[in-house]
Amino acid sequence: MTKHMQRDLERLRDSVLRMAGYVEHAVHSATRAVSDRDTDAATAVVSGDTEIDELENHLQEDCLNILALHQPVAKDLRRIGTVMLITTDLERMGDLAVGIAERAIELAHPPRVVVPDRLHQMAGRATRMMRLALDAFVNEDAAAARAVIGMDDEVDADNDELVLHAIEEMKRSPDRVEAGVALFSIVRHVERIADHATNIAEDVIFLVEGAIVRHHHDEVIPPPE
Amino acid sequence: MTKHMQRDLERLRDSVLRMAGYVEHAVHSATRAVSDRDTDAATAVVSGDTEIDELENHLQEDCLNILALHQPVAKDLRRIGTVMLITTDLERMGDLAVGIAERAIELAHPPRVVVPDRLHQMAGRATRMMRLALDAFVNEDAAAARAVIGMDDEVDADNDELVLHAIEEMKRSPDRVEAGVALFSIVRHVERIADHATNIAEDVIFLVEGAIVRHHHDEVIPPPE
């Protein structure tokens, strides 16, 4: 790898981590806004998404410029490709945070449903998966990426319990159906945030091992290099 | 473009169209299974997803091999990149069809909710968007791709009406809450299928014009080449 290329790659990584910081903050603020019935915080998440979108556009353009300039091959090419894929996932996570914030605004008005603490724990687990997947990316550590994929089971358990809770709330009275549906949607959004963290982890395994592991988490794939 | 490269690109396109055919079939079967309460058809969609996953893996590997072999630049590089992005979207559309089919199985048992015809129309519109986005890809037609993005408004209108219907069903009786939630989920899944068709259309505009249009549908971007 040339020095110039290495410097460009480091810059890309820094931008990815900065974007991930924004997304993590958005997810936390959005789920906190649900529990606190805080419409101001929710509105801030919605308007903050423009910044995440701009970061995505800049990052994708940077990747294309680096591809055009250095014409990297093999692992360097995969490094750029991985940044493009991760960036796409992060942007969608930002959109999901907006979806949560929009529903937080609906939920702030009566009739209210009970928002269990477990929702915030679930969101914490999902963003932790994202953070660990990005650590695995920076360290090019496939084992750490596989550990992230394994964490999805806990989020699934959170999901199942919270969905049951939302359904119980809806059954209590027809008045609560809209709020229960909003809560259900929020839970599904957090679940999808965790799915995107899993995607990132899969991309890291691809980066390190050069083999596509999507749909084949459990297979042992020998690294080709 | 060398003859060899052109042949490889044509092969890639054929594979993408074949994969899209599978996905379209899965979406239609899954939503038909909802209306017909046909658990056999739904089960077939779930088990058929393995094939879609395999097609994705083969396509992604083909793209990497072509990149390594020909080291394309500029528009040819974007052609391969676009195939990789489209393939990812098609695979997720297949997953969404599976999600619909799984809920179709839940909905087949009483207590039942009314499934409006509009659900199948909505799914038809979403798969039509996908087909037109792929036509735009094959013809490298940015105007056609922009038309696809415009079609999303109709799907949004379907979504709004069907969500209201699902909520009304849930309000009719606590017994119907689970089925209403399943119907709500199905509608949201179809909406996301249309979102993926929009993604594909955006990728086609990027391919043709070399500029990233995500989050900037309405701006006129001058083609750089």
List keywords for this structure.
homodimer; 225 residues; mainly alpha; Methane Monooxygenase Hydroxylase, Chain G, domain 1; disordered C terminus
Task: Tell me the distance between the termini of chain A.
Answer: 16 Å
Q: Percent of residues of chain A in beta strands?
A: under 5%
Order of helices and strands of chain A: HHHHHH
Count of DSSP H/I helices of chain A: 6
- Helix content range of the residues of chain A, please? over 70%
The CATH class of chain A turns out to be Mainly Alpha
Kindly describe this structure:
Two copies of one chain form a homodimer. Chain A is mostly helical and 225 residues long. Chain A has one domain: Methane Monooxygenase Hydroxylase, Chain G, domain 1, CATH 1.20.58. Chain A has six helices and no strands. The first copy, chain A, has helices spanning 3-36, 39-70, 74-107, 118-139, 142-172, 177-209. The longest helix of chain A is centred in the N-terminal third of the chain and has 34 residues, at 3-36. Chain A is elongated and about 65 Å long. Chain A binds chain B through residues 53, 56-57, 60-61, 67-68, 71, 73-74, 77, 81, 84-85, 88, 91, 163, 166-167, 170-172, 174, 177-178, 180-181, 184-185, 188, 212, 214-216, and chain B through 50, 53, 56-57, 60-61, 67-68, 71, 73-74, 77, 81, 84-85, 88, 91, 163, 166-167, 170-172, 174, 177-178, 180-181, 184-185, 188, 212, 214-216.
